[in-house]
Amino acid sequence: MGNTRSTSRSKRHVSDGEASKNKKKTGLAHAKDTSGRVTVQDVISVLIYCMVAVIIVSLLRIFVIGLYVVPSGSMETSLNIGDHIVTNRLAKPVLKLKRGDVVVFKDPANWLNSENVFASNDLVKRLIGLPGDTVACKGNGAPVTVNGVPIDESSYLKAGVKPSNFAFKMKVTPGNVFVLGDNRANSADSRYHTDDGNHGLVPLDRIKGVAILIYMPTSRFGPVHAHHDVFAKVGGASHT
Question: What is the CATH number of domain 66-231?
Answer without folding.
Answer: 2.10.109.10
